[in-house]
Amino acid sequence: MKGRIHDLDVVGRPESLTVLSALSAVTTHLGLAATVNSTFNEPYEVARRLATLDHLSGGRAAWNVVTSWDAFTGENFRRGGYLAEADRYTRAKEFLQTARELWDSWASDALPRADGRFVRPGGIGFFEHTGQHFDIRGRFDVPRPPQGNPVIIQAGDSEEGREFAASSSDVIFSRHSKLEEGRTFYRDVKSRLAKYGRTADDLKILPAVTYVLGDTQEEAEERAAEIRRAQVGPQTAILFLEAIWGRDLSEYDPDGPLPDVEPDLSTDVSKGRAQFRRDRAETAAKWRALAEEKNLSIRELVIETAAPQTFVGTALSVAEEIDHFVQTDAADGFIFVPHLTPGGLDDLVDKVVPLLQEKGVFRADYTGPTLRHHLGLKELS
Amino acid sequence: MSLHLAVALDGAGWHPAAWRAEGAEPDRLFTAGYWADLVIEAERGLLDWVTFEDSLSLQSSRYDAPDDRLDQVRGRLDAVLLAAAVAPLTSKIGLIPTTSVTHTEPFHVAIGIASLDYASKGRAGWRPRVSGRPDEAAHFGRREFPPFDPGNSEFVDALFREASDAVEVVRRLWDSWEDDAEIRDATTGRFIDRDRLHYIDFQGEFFSVKGPSITPRPPQGQPLITALGHSTRPYEFAAENADVLYVTPTDRDDARRIVEEVRELNPGLKVFADLVVFLGDHKARLDELDGAPLESDAHVFEGTPAQLADLLLDWGFEGYRLRPGVLPHDLTAITRGLVPELQARGAFRTAYETPDLRGRLGLGRPASRYARVS
Asked: How far, in Å, CA of A28 to CA of A53, rounded?
């Protein structure tokens, strides 16, 4: 919006693979998942960097495959611009397919390193990929990763995204953190696996979830409300609204009523997102109705509409809820998103994990070296 | 005077048959532990920095294309990630990975090296290199290169112009967050001061980059940039863009000639000489195994640590980058043989003095080019 740099959230981050490589040196079993977009990268480079992380960590690397939609990001790269939504998906699919061809181009026993032979004849194959997005050939330069292929994580929720995950991901990073919704999603995605020759165990569904603990249910809920209030400051509330209204609302009082003007649907900051434009009109109407009904200020409205934390309760009730999700096929596990970093996962580890271990539903110790092993995924030859 | 000493790490060492030498560890080449052991040993010897070689194609005995040899080391790990993996296990030594500037996006290089500078608390450097081979270009499929010919000066010149643009972009991106851009002001809810983040608006012959970086300004401000050159065009590139240039003289007179040429281009550039070193008499046996005497772009030294110390002091460079013929043997001979020899002559440090890599070369921490003078 306005071409200005957003200043209200924590911004700035390290390059994911570099920081995970550093972390690989000071951990021994933990999986290390790098988010790397397939829009402004090239398969040869991403494949060699992920293979490197897998070697350095002894088989603990994962790739969270994402696509990038915004043209601003594109202005930083040779390819430039942005891709239409449909092209982003076909590129992501072809990108992953190509990366797998590169990892698989080395035999797992390519390097005897004995009797004068470092490489065995035929150990390093040629690759050749000709497709809509990539036309590359040659020989890959990193030995086959310890896991064969790193674990592939994907977050798509659309029809295309679900199909992509069913065909080629190991993990879905899902947004469905409510029980019924989770079960529906779980059934839907798992039912798509058979046509790709895969079984229910080959794709793990891990919703992204937040949590708040308290000594009592009331205390936990109070803390959860406090966290939501802290997350939505006055300026953040206005900015949130501006994203939907598509116009400058800086003159409005965050503690006052909603703007009297209607959203401007002609502007669209995220180019190529038609769906987002339709959603904006609907969202604005819904919000206006809600604010009138409950007599909410701008900030109160944004707090009210912010997604509530997934699990709120005592350590025991949260442990039971987590287990219930898994036992009733709403999830295979979870990706916890702490509201604070660092330290935001401490009480999960200290209080909830021991209860899950007592129940016998979470490992008491690591039983293998690789992330594929932790996740119960088949070893690749 | 005190010398600067760096070591160049690559595979099993710089001799193509190094993996077959006594004490070599070919089975550990692709493990983090192998590289950690080497860099910890280099730090034990108080060396200035280690460099990590890299390329976007398999090693080859030919300079212009891949080969089919099975008796030499093939396969490598990404150098930036390798450097990051040894960063938490060391505390003083500089870490300088190589990346291609022909195919790798400068934006990705900038955030990778900045992240390495954070992970190592100010010990990161970078060695940009150009990739002229058509087989390497075919791994990316974005453009076709002619058969590689170093004599094709028009092509080589374009590669270096592009490389200069890439370095310029990386340097601007490192500066695109001023040092105090993160204000974390709870009262106004602002995490950053947007006036202290800058678009770099680079538009060049080969690409455009808008910026700003996504990674805050690295601890050193500008991590150390080093480049290798064998002739005038790369010297010019280094003179324009680098802090340190590695050159490859064949003898003392050649050294003098090269230094004169470089000084004219940029009197402030630090010039180091590269040498392949065998501390002992193991080279002949390796030549025999490989089927030919070692060929190298750099002078190949064979002898004792005392003889090497004589040569280093005689040639008169302020620093050297030594390429161990065999790892870990020749590295250990440097740290435990050459270093004490130089220390005894008062020509090498007896303790690390500065925490960051730039400081080790007497380079200060530059202000961001975008910082307003107030």
From this structure: 13
Q: Which residues in chain B have their CB less than 8 angstroms from residue A14's CB?
A: 111, 114-115, 118-119, 215
Residues 6+ apart with CB under 8 A from B53: B8, B9, B10, B11, B76, B79, B98
Q: How confident is the model at residue B276 (pLDDT cuts 50, 70, 90)?
A: very high
Listed ranges A2-11, A24-33, B190-199; the one with the highest mean pLDDT: A24-33
- The CA distance from B296 to B208, in Å, is 37
Q: Map out the domains of chain B as residue ranges.
A: 4-131+218-360
A3 contacts chain B (CB < 8 A)? no
DSSP tag of A106: B
Q: How confident is the model at residue A176 (pLDDT cuts 50, 70, 90)?
A: confident
Tell me the count of A-B CB pairs closer than 8 A: 190
Domains with residue ranges and CATH for chain A? 16-210 (3.20.20.30), 233-305 (no CATH)
Verify whether the Cβ–Cβ distance B85 to A14 is below 8 Å. Answer: no
For the entire predicted model, the pTM comes to: 0.94
Distance to chain B for A24, nearest Cα, Å: 7
Backbone φ and ψ of B81, nearest 5°: -70, -35
Opening angle at CA A71, ends A66 and A72, nearest 5: 100
Question: CB contact, 8 Å: A307 with chain B?
Answer: no
**Alpha-carbon distances of B165 from A46, A248, A271, B17, rounded to whole Å:** 23, 37, 29, 37
The residue in chain A having the minimum alpha-carbon distance to the alpha carbon of residue B102 is A78
Of the listed ranges A245-254, A367-376, B232-241, the least confidently predicted one is A245-254
Residue with tokens 């295309």: A160
* Chain B touched by A37 (CB under 8 Å): no
pLDDT digits (tens, 9 = 90+) for A63-122: 999 887 666 677 888 777 667 777 888 899 999 999 999 999 999 999 999 999 999 999
Residues B304, B26: contact at Cβ < 8 Å?
no
State the CATH class of domain B4-131+218-360. Answer: alpha beta
Mean pLDDT of A198-205: 96
The DSSP bridge pattern shows strands A335-336 and A204-209 to be: parallel
Per residue in A259-278, pLDDT (tens digit) is 888 888 776 555 444 556 66
CA of A191 vs chain B CAs: smallest distance (Å)? 37
**Best CA proximity match to B262, nearest among B239, B230, B229, B242:** B239
Residues whose CB is less than 8 angstroms from the CB of residue A65 and which lie 6 or more positions away in sequence, other chains included? A36, A38, A92, A95, A96, A152, A153, A154, A169
How far is B146 from B142, CA to CA, in rounded Å?
Answer: 14
pLDDT of residue B291: 95
| Peptide bond preceding A342 in cis form (omega within 30 of 0) | yes
Is A7 in the B-facing interface, judged by CB distances under 8 Å?
Answer: yes
B105-161 pLDDT, tens digit each: 999 999 999 999 999 999 999 999 999 999 999 999 999 999 999 899 999 999 999
Which amino acid makes up residue B253?
A: D
> Could you say which of A18, A76, A234 has the minimum Cβ distance to residue B189?
A234
ipTM, two decimals, is: 0.97
A19 Cβ under 8 Å from any chain B Cβ: yes
Residue of B nearest to A106 (CA): B75
